[in-house]
Request: fold
Amino acid sequence: MTDYKNLHRHFPADFVWGVATSSFQIEGAAFEDGKGESIWDRFCRAPGAIADMSNGDVACDHVHRLESDLDLIASLGVNAYRFSVSWPRVQARGFGSWNEKGLGFYDRLVDGLLTRGVQPYLTLNHWDLPQALQDVGGWAARDTVHHFVDYARGIQKRLGDRLAAITTHNEPWVIAELGHETGTFAPGLKNRKTAIQVAHHLLLSHGLSLEALRADGCQAKLGIVLNLSSTMPATESSADVAKAHMDDAKTRRWYTDPLFSGNYPQEVLSELGSDAPIIEAGDMGHIQTPMDYLGVNYYTRYVSSAGEPFDAKALGLPVNDMGWEIYPQGLTDLLVRLHHEYELPPVLITENGGAFKDLLVDGKVHDAERTDYIRTHIAAAGAALAQGVPLAGYMAWSLMDNFEWSSGYTKRFGIVHVDYATLGRTLKDSAIWYRCFLADCRAAQLGMVGD
Ligand code: FCB
Reply:
């Protein structure tokens, strides 16, 4: 049994501990101070797109509450904060003139973090592409790749001297697959060939940005964030094993193979046939540009079945409010597997957490399930570290309840509760646990507790 009391002892003194958010999910101020429309602003208006018919117009009103949110972040005792820049807030159309008011907001955010001793981890693309770029083809158009590189360079020039890290994209699989094949996320397209081309352009724009930022003398560490699961067959039957192999190839290796080995998995290319992406000479070399870190978002395992889909809930396995199975061992399995397959740079767990039905009663939220989720996954991360995985950090998703994409405000992932009527913030028990855990980590660093 894991000794949770001494959990902090599994991690080195320089380990990165953080909380994460993204621009569209928390910022609000959707049409203020020169911000342009994003594809999520547009998508929220499509009938039936969002469970509670909500949008990001106000969200957590973070733009207007920056100072108190910065105090909130610092009060947790984290040494890192992962956030994203809303591209249309700083460049309304995604190209051309820059919006000084938008840039000023991120200036204040970054400076406010540093003043409070928190390292800024910036993501350039957490899905809110300028609608003006979507109007001319979005990620399916190769021109968007070059606009993204210009955007990356502009952000680096303005903020790069004060950032710990710049992530190009958050979860390219989600953008490609959910945004362009199933159509459940913005921009809501449903075409496999388009989705695959989008995936290629995201990877290409990542590689080209790294090259350009390094040529510009960028000091911040550079990487990408992938959503990864440990995929396993439902049974040992050859059909399930074959399905698990293909599912893993399509969702994980489609991204990790090009990034670390410079090629797409052949079995997926064969299955795609004429839907395979257009790849120009030199593209794969750019994609393979070495990274300073790999960001991994882990929520659950994926169980592949050639027959009826695996249903964790029906099987009585523990699930969260999204219906996702709670399976901490999968985090260890995933990280160890990546470590064996590739020469990994340092790995950061850039998102991990769960949605649960929280109740705010007398100013408290007793979210024991979330506390348990975070604690058991931190332990699973420690187990991977002990097996030699170059793990460098962990960030909880999310700092606070926020707009959960097509679920709107119906799912709460925060360790801080947001009352959407008053926009008041309340630390849940999980935040208080995390704060105590981080205090233990710091005390150990300072030699205040014996080994
Ligand atoms: C991830 C997203 C993040 C959040 C969590 C629950 O896929 O990166 O924005 O919605 O899921």
